[in-house]
Amino acid sequence: MNNADFLLDTNMLGYLTEAKCGRDQPHVKNVQERVTQATNKNGRRLFIAAITAGECECGLRMARRADLAQQALAREVLRSFPAVLSIDNSIAIDHYAGLRAKLFERFAPKTVRETAKNCCVEQWIDPVTGKTLGVDENDLWIVATAMAHNLTLVTNDKLKRIIEAVDPPIRIENWTEPAPLTVSHHAHAFR
User: What's the 3-state SS for the chain?
Assistant: First the structure.
């Protein structure tokens, strides 16, 4: 995929749904404007991960006192991204497993790390949760998907620990912030 393409995190779809519902907070407008800019430039494409589709649909199904009109708009936003990237062996083995192992080595309690080194394969089960490592498992899968497809991840999440484990680094943008200003260079200089 083109390295100028983007993978939108779940929270970006939430902001796009808010925009469809008529909310006009600055961060919602910024996301909407950045989506428009990205898709109008050089054939850039926007993708979502299968994990994002699952998170969105799960949230819609679990919503109490659901606003059916708002849910319909959320599903419309979700369907507007026909390119949902699936989890495959490459993502699971080449990217997710490496990230998770680095996080385990860096943040798992020392006693758990030592026990894991002495286990044989048949006994080894991941003994720590994402909470113990200070990460969200779904975020790991989304970052692994961005890595596998060489996409810029668009998120409002901090992902500090995950980003520390990513090597080589991935590109991340937060579209809730205004787009950076571009400076145009003119042929003449100021005098």
Answer: CCCCCEEECHHHHHHHHHHHCCCCCHHHHHHHHHHHHHHHCCCCCEEEEHHHHHHHHHHHHHCCCCCHHHHHHHHHHHHCCCCEECCCHHHHHHHHHHHHHHHHHHHCCHHHHHHHHCCCHHHCCCCCCHHHHCCCHHHHHHHHHHHHHCCEEECCCCCHHHHHHCCCCCCEECCCCCCCCCCCCCCCCCC
pLDDT(122) > 70: no
Q: How confident is residue 165, by pLDDT bands cut at 50, 70 and 90?
A: confident
What's this model's pTM, rounded to 2 decimal places? 0.85
Domains and CATH numbers, the chain: 6-173 (3.40.50.1010)
